[in-house]
Automatic annotation (TrEMBL):
GO biological process: methylation
GO molecular function per UniProt: DNA binding; N-methyltransferase activity
InterPro entries the record matches: DNA_methylase_N4/N6, RM_Methyltransferase, SAM-dependent_MTases_sf
EC number(s) per entry: 2.1.1.-
Bias type Low complexity, positions: 79-89
DNA methylase N-4/N-6 domain sequence ranges: 122-334
Region annotation Disordered: where it falls in the sequence: 60-98
Annotated family: Belongs to the N(4)/N(6)-methyltransferase family.
Organism the protein comes from: Bythopirellula goksoeyrii
Keywords: Methyltransferase, Transferase
Protein name: Methyltransferase
Gene3D superfamilies xrefs: Vaccinia Virus protein VP39
Keyword Hydrolase assigned: no
Amino acid sequence: MLSRQPRRDETELGSAVDSLRDEVRVLRDVLDEIREALQWQNNNAADFPELVQNREPLGQTGCETQTDWSAGLQPPSQPTEIPDNTEPTPDTPPTLPSRELLSEVLHGDCYELLPTIPSGCVECLFIDPQYNIGLDYGSGSQADRLPPEIYLRQMERLAQLAVERLTPTGSLWFLCPEKWADEMGIMLSKLLPRRNRIIWRETFGQYRETSYPSGHRHLFYHVMDEKLSPFFTDEIRVPSQRMLSGDKRAAGPRVPDDVWEIPRLVGNASERVEGHPCQLPEAMLKRIVLCSTRPGDLIADPMSGTGTTLRVAQILGRRYLGIEKEARFVDLIKDRLAQERQREMFLQ
Ligand SMILES: C[S@@+](CC[C@H](N)C(=O)[O-])C[C@H]1O[C@@H](n2cnc3c(N)ncnc32)[C@H](O)[C@@H]1O
């Protein structure tokens, strides 16, 4: 007997049902994770009171008192006081030691670790999140394919946590692809004034013939204080078009405009480190760090990946704080930073 070929609308319906099924599965996973986390917190509240009450921040630098929250931002929420009636016993785990925030890389989830960093200490916070396009960072590609509203809510939470860490003159940089640029732009502008929306022309993108292939990403640059947040120009200047064409009227190097043409890293690029699906070029981070920070300032990257931000901060004499969820990427970052340290020692 001849079997009937499915009609086109039947096939489309089939794939719509499949993707709905995928989304339900992801939602179920997210709910399970939340349930597990709540369960874990309940079970451990008695053993680790510092996890649910006044959790000691990672560092105490005193700068957390400097933030002026009157500018319309909400101050970081105060931890809820939970009365502790238990007598301290020799088994009570010690609270995290206070220490100066020096350069370091933390292994863990940035949604949990960012709140433990004192508020008002970070001069420049750069975020290059996962783009929710099904890339496998280690937890499977499904983890990077959340329903859009859940993904966007996560990004908003991340941006809020980031803003709480910034100094009163700090800056927030947020990189995202065309796909999310509209939503991210609106979300970020509700949190902080925007200084620039930079187009990163990455030279070539994923090739396709169904529409113009995308060759750019959006880099949002927002600042805590439109007037007081610094913008250092000396080291970011580039030769002007007049200089390049040999025109005698050329006034000298100029601040680059808001379209940055920086080639993305291909597989055999000399700065490429193996084992991560998306590494940014150092040239991009160099401009960000140089225009918005002074030597010694603290720069943070809560989704560090291969540690490009941290490496650039290290080379330019800034302190850095990285967070990365995947253990193997943390190792990779530490190796990368150690190589730079060795090179510095060699050059001395
Ligand atoms: C787009 S990559 C960053 C690449 C980085 N800019 C670079 O140049 O190498 C995003 C990184 O965020 C990490 N990540 C995702 N969710 C995270 C979370 N909740 N906490 C910390 N890191 C996370 C991923 O493992 C991945 O390495």
